[in-house]
Amino acid sequence: MAFLIFLYSCKKDSTSRNLKLQDQQRIQRWYNSNINPDKKNPFSTLSPIWDQVRVTEVNGQIVYEISMNNPQKIFIGYESTDKNKAEEYLSRSETRFLIFENIKSGSIVNGCYMSILNTGIQNNIKSVRYKEPGNLTGNIIYFNPDGTMANGWAFRDGATLQRFSVSNEREYKATMRIRSEEDRINKSNGGKIARYEAAYCTPEYRIIYGMACAGADGYMNCQQYVIGREYINNCTYGGGGGADGEYTPPNPTGGGTGSTPPTKDIIDSLQGYPCAQALLTQLPLLNNDIAAKINATFNGSCDFNMKFVPHAFPAGSKTDGDQTVTSIEMKNGFNVKDGFTISTTIRINEDVLKYATKEYILATMYHEALHSFIAVEKFRLGDQYSTTYPDVNPAYINGAAGIDVTKAIFVDKHSVMAINYLNGLTSALLSYNSNLNKATAEAMAAAGILHLDPAASTLNTNERDTRNKTSTGTKCP
Predict the structure, then answer these.
(1) Mean pLDDT along residues 283-290
(2) Mean pLDDT along residues 181-194
(3) Where in this protein does the record put region Disordered (predicted)?
(4) What number of CA atoms fall less than 13 Å from residue 75's CA on the CB side?
């Protein structure tokens, strides 16, 4: 699904609402100071109708919703929009400008364009307001004051269905490359190969069209032309949160409107395994530490949203866990070098959750997060991976069915990346339990990362199953 911006001419009605003169003058001054009629702004030809402003109070803010003159009749459609039905699409569309005022401070904090497209049977969209979609089936998409896309939402009968975020061409291609591998990897993983299930975010793009017309009345010839293309992520959304339908400004932490992006978090789905749950409670910043160690090793800039779930692997399986990357989201939609957030579901073997030491469970969490990061980088970089990360074992990266986690990750224990990561993980284990033998911590850190010698393998195995009564770590009660 791609969004298109068309330019078209026709007539439509407007509703009006009076505004106090002093408030009108204040928001008018803000608008004139902050809106630059730059030709790069696709809405630059729109102008406010100052006697048609609706004022509402939303989440501690006063929202001024301003109707706009639209001489070029800009509206947003889909890639499949029938160019012969532009007037019909326009009748189902409207673009307004919103100005947000903080109630407590009395200061104006932000503004945006709100573009509404109704794709359902509701023809009158006048009742649709900011965060009040009514029974809308369609899209509400927000654009920053400079005309760049900010975010958007899809609705069905007024219920929030999907959310849109800005992406870029490189992320789009990388995600599509991952998608092309999903079926092959899922069929081949057998609990051993890193696998991907269908992500909840769909990479898409919208095309911005303009329309140039020549001739006289009755003999007009109008042609569309491409202004540009913007990439988006279309993500399923469960709804029920305060952010439903909200505008997210470029810097929401600066006192503007919209919701602050969610903190990168760990989702605890380990009900029934209180020992593992206690581990997450003791380490509330575990996700940050995992990301820090991976970034220090690979000179990267990634964050993690991690969901841990128990899984019953086949009886006697030596697989401690596996992982599924569910989404990749750029921190800066225009520059992959600014980093990205990986959302991943990590399945941990129920036997490990029942019988392993806490330190062993912790090491497993680190290992699976590392598998997620490397897998994402592999599909993002493609053939450039080995050049970018020469310390990573080619046999691990280029297995017959994709990434092969039965192989050592690093080429040898003396590689710079191996030393950095293993030292970091060993320190994390010893920090959690200062009484743990260093050799045991090193063995657990290296398991699945490097090939272990017999002595280290024994130390690692001891911590995996406390029923053998040879473990030295923290036993779960």
Answers:
(1) 68
(2) 48
(3) 458-477
(4) 24
Residue with tokens 């269905």: 161
Which of 123, 8, 207, 74 shows the shortest CA–CA distance to 138? 123
pLDDT at residue 20 in the model: 78
| Contact by Cβ (8 Å): 211, 224 | yes
One-character DSSP codes across 325-386 = EEEEEESSTT-GGG-EEEEEEEEEEHHHHHHS-HHHHHHHHHHHHHHHHHHHHHHHHGGGHH
Q: Where are the alpha helices (DSSP H) in 189-239?
A: none
pTM above 0.70, yes or no: no
Residue 126 confidence (pLDDT):
84
Structure token digits, residue 15: 């509703």
* Number of other residues whose CB lies within 10 A of the CB of residue 389: 20
Helix (H) or strand (E) segment spanning residue 223:
strand 221-236
Residue spans of beta strands (DSSP E) within 59-195 = 61-69, 74-78, 93-102, 108-118, 138-143, 149-156, 159-166
SS3 of 434-462: CCCCHHHHHHHHHECCECCCHHHHHHHHH
Listed range (53-57, 162-166, 411-415, 416-420) with the worst mean pLDDT: 411-415
Amino acid identity, residue 357?
T
Report the alpha-carbon distance of residue 262 to residue 407 in Å, rounded.
35
User: Rounded to whole angstroms, what are the CA distances from 146 to 37, 159, 285, 432?
Assistant: 8, 29, 37, 49
Tokens of 420: 């950095």
Residue 439 has pLDDT above 90, yes or no: yes
Q: What tokens were used for 431?
A: 């920090």
For residue 328, give Cα distances in angstroms to 165, 202, 206, 304, 395. Answer: 12, 10, 19, 10, 25
d(CA 243, CA 221): 44
Tens of pLDDT, residues 386-434: 888 888 888 877 766 666 777 778 877 778 888 888 888 998 899 889 8
Separation in Å, CA 212 to CA 79, 219, 222, 254: 19, 14, 5, 40
The alpha carbon of 322 is separated from its chain's Cα centroid by a whole number of angstroms, namely 21
Helix (H) or strand (E) holding 291: helix 286-298
Tokens of 328: 């990749």
- Residue type at 244 in one-letter notation: D
- Please name every residue paired with 68 in a beta bridge, in sequence order, or none if there are none: 48
Whole-angstrom CA distances from 310 to 49, 200, 259, 264 are 57, 21, 32, 21
Q: What is the token pair recorded at 414? A: 């003396």
**Parallel, antiparallel or unpaired: strands 302-311 and 266-268:** parallel
